[in-house]
Amino acid sequence: MGGFLLRKAGAALIVVFLSSIVVFIGIRALPGDPAVALGAENRDPAVMAAIRQSYGLDKPLPVQYVKWISKALRGDLGLDARQLPVGHTIITRLPITLELAFLAILVGTVIGVLAGVIAAVRRGKPSDHAATATALVGLSVPHFWLGLMMIIAFAVDLHWLPASGYVSFRAHPIGNLEHLLMPALVLGTGLSAVLMRQTRSAMLNSLSADYVRTARAKGLSEGVVIGKHALRNSLITVTTVIGLQLGALISGAVITEQIFVIPGFGRLTLDAVNERDYTLLQGVVLVAAAGYVVVNLLVDVAYSLLNPRIRVSGAAER
Amino acid sequence: MKVSFRRIASLALVAACVAALAAAVAAARTTRSSADIKNGGTLTIGLAEEPDALDPTLARTFVGRIVFLAMCEKLYDLDSHLNIVPQLATALPQVSKDKLTYTIKVRSGVQFNDGTPFNAAAVKTTLERDLTLKGSVRASEISPISSVDAPNATTVVLHLKSPYSPLTAQLADRAGMILSPKALASGGTFAQNPVCVGPFMFKDRVAGDHITLVKSPYYYNKAKVHLASIVYRIMTDPSSRTQALRAGDIQVEDRIQSTDVPTLQKDSGVTVKKAVTIGYQGLTLNIGNKNGLLKPYANVGSDLAKSQYLRTAFDAALDRTTINRVVFGGLNQPDCYPIAPVSPWYEPTTKGLACDLHANVNLAKQLVKASGIANPSVNLMLGGTDPVTARLGQVIQSMENAVGIKVSVTPTQFTTALNKADAGTFDAFAVGWSGRVDPDGNIYGFVATPGTLNDSGFSSSKLDYILNGARKSLTIKSRTTLYRAAMQIIHRQRPLIYLYHPVNYYGVSKKVDGVQIYGDGLIRVNAAGYTK
Fold first, then answer.
1. Lowest-confidence range among A240-254, B65-79, B125-139?
2. Terminal CA-to-CA distance of chain A, rounded, Å?
3. Which has the higher per-residue pLDDT, B56 or A73?
4. How far off is chain A from B98, nearest CA to CA, in Å?
5. Which terminus of chain A has fewer CB atoms gathered within 10 Å of its CB, N or C?
6. What is the pLDDT of residues B431-479, one digit of tens each?
7. Minimal CA–CA distance to B54: which of B252, B251, B213, B259?
8. Which chain B residue is nearest to residue A50, measuring alpha carbons?
9. What pLDDT sits at residue A52?
10. Which candidate from A41, A89, A261 shows the least CB-CB separation from B233?
11. CB contact, 8 Å: B247 with chain A?
């Protein structure tokens, strides 16, 4: 297990390093002079020159990269266009998106796995068709539209929930859940649809396997057969899908955060792109790249825990 | 039954008192006073964009000025008619006969929001910082100042290199915001903890989310301040902003998008306020910007650049009233000039000047023919990719097509469009300007040869002479005459075609009173509060 983890961690570090180079070059490939964006209405040549100098844009690219990465390795991601520390901004906003993503996964998993199990067990029956149709709708409905409809219904008309914003769990636990309930439902809807289909497919495979027939022949109750044997094996696939979807969730959170005005990481990334705030954008994208790598690492570890054969052989068997 | 006279008189007196009381109550309901606003509470304002650095020396965004209004008073301010009035100064500047010395008297007994005394020395420190700090955006705005003196605690003397009439107007904006010398000397980044003189003081900021101000215990006029705090929330999506106002999450919405205005006007819990702004939106035509902004000008050789007739035809084909109705639902103010009707300069500068808000298709066709250019074509670059801007492009395209000018429309992301405009790689560019109180701010930068925003590449020695003269002249009458002459040249040559002045709409909850919006488009809440 130790060797397996070391190999995986080493590969992750290489990926993060290469990502930093891609991030750095990719940002500079964005159209538009950042000095013009940051100058807003003021395009005085002296102001433009000062902006370029403060961002180091007047230096050669390799010099810019070395200066940035050496500071980043010391934990200093620089000051953004608001003159606020980028590191502090990321630390403040990333947990909000992670909390939203976690709640969306919770919502999506509960709904998706439950619906998938029902659809598999009642294959061909009306409940199977209903679950499949609902999954299709969940995948098709745009988050933007769904979010606005929920705001109009639950916030504007009924005043049951706030329309926008965020309150930290520490400051007000109930307020925190009230603010995140609608966004989590919006974000979790798409995930539940994907998980429902994956769970159904995996369960159908498991339910037709020899070991399930043996379990039934031994006299075990249907609940034990489905919950303890078939579902457990199906969760391997579901876990992999959740891991892959987590990245998409965090990306998809951009729209949800925009609609519900949640000060999350996704919105921060979008704002940094629009404002051509190079310092902020570099820090944000680097952290996101590192996040993806860490998540994949965790999925590999979880995979090996669920399937002991992977720990020994170091390879996944399907 | 016999009723005594005394009894009748008593009843009559009581009835009269009741009637008088009822009338007084009715009058009080229609005439709100400060007594109707209760103290305390947090006002939440949904801003359309995020302010940049909260440092007046470095700040560049329009929306940042909204936040500064509540926490950073200036030497001068504007009244509701956009006249300049003293704020931290006690009177308008005394200007010497040679126009090179401005003497400003400032208030005494005032403190910054960290307890430091406000005085002439603090003004000197701030102005010198504005002039010398690397990256200062204010330096060009007050560049004619060569030195600043503070001979005593309440007198500031500005020495100028050359006469400069717009100076007082500049001191009524960010250049006139005075910063605490103690905060400046502390060595930290001022924008992370800004300290000025103001009814509210900075508390905290979360990037991209909110800025919180709290009532200042140091403010010299704190009896007039009702709110305990103000939270400015960054809400860039206009639909979300409107729904948040309707749901009560925010009490003031900054710049309602035009499609939401009718909905909010029907909402019984919201008042929609409007302000015709001092800005403008129009079309910049590339005439001489061949080598890039501020590089030597050369005619770009395009159809529009080659022919003044064609530029006039382009203008004559545009029906500003129809554009306003079709694209903006009739919500903006069509016009032909850069100075807005809300400005005190408007009437004297534009009265009698030609401005036809309707298209003159026959004239346009004649002018196209007179230009001698067969099948003229123009590429119109739009400064944005949103649906409203796209609609504007399509309407213009359609109008020009009717007179024989083929227009191709290129929606372009805003920053990229500005880059292209500066580089001179455009024919026509649909873009605007947020506006300045002094007419110099709406004209000089765009059409003067050394203008830093002269994307048109327009260069006229006569216009430069007139605009420089207007900068040096101090009397309103002489400046008005000069700006009239300037606008006649601009109207004839058309480096810019002005289409309309934006009218901004703001939503305010009916639970709140005292929110004021002037023509500069800034939300003023210093005396606002919740109604009793």
1. A240-254
2. 19
3. B56
4. 28
5. C
6. 999 999 999 999 999 999 999 999 999 999 999 999 999 999 988 899 9
7. B213
8. B135
9. 83
10. A261
11. yes
CA distance linking residue B239 with residue B393, whole number of Å: 23
- Based on the number of CB atoms within 10 Å of its own CB, is B13 exposed (0-12), middle (13-18) or buried (19 or more)? exposed
B134–chain A nearest CA distance, Å: 7
Q: What is the spatial distance between Cα B197 and Cα B162, in angstroms, rounded to a whole number?
A: 30
Which residue reads 């902006």 in tokens?
A51
Prediction pTM value: 0.85
pLDDT, tens digit, 9 for 90 and up, residues B80-95:
999 999 999 999 999 9
* Rounded Cα gap, residues B167 and B161, in angstroms: 12
CB contacts under 8 A, B 300-319 vs A, are: none
Residue A123 pLDDT class (50, 70, 90 cuts): confident
Residues contacting residue A166 through CB under 8 Å, at least 6 positions apart: A96, A176, A179, A180, A262, A263, A264, B209
Q: What are the angstrom distances between the C-alpha of B46 and each of A291, B241, B507?
A: 31, 6, 10
The DSSP output letter for B16 is: H
B139 chain-A contacts, CB cut-off 8 A: 44, 46
Max CA separation in chain A (angstroms): 84
Reduced to 3 states (helix: H, G, I; strand: E, B; else coil), residue B30 is helix
In contact, B240 and A258? CB cutoff 8 Å:
yes
Predicted ipTM beyond 0.85? no
Distance from CA of A39 to the nearest CA of B (A): 6
Task: State whether the Cα torsion B242-B246-B251-B252 is positive or negative.
Answer: positive
Mean pLDDT (whole number) for A122-134: 85
CB within 8 Å: A162 and B247: yes
Query: B59 Cβ partners below 8 Å, 6+ apart?
Result: B51, B52, B53, B65, B68, B137, B174
Q: In chain B, which residues have their Cβ closer than 8 Å to the Cβ of A91?
A: none
For chain B, the farthest-separated pair of C-alpha atoms sits apart, in whole angstroms, at 105
Q: Kindly list the residues from chain A whose CB atom is less than 8 angstroms away from the CB atom of residue B239.
A: 148, 259
Question: Does B239 contact chain A (CB < 8 Å)?
Answer: yes
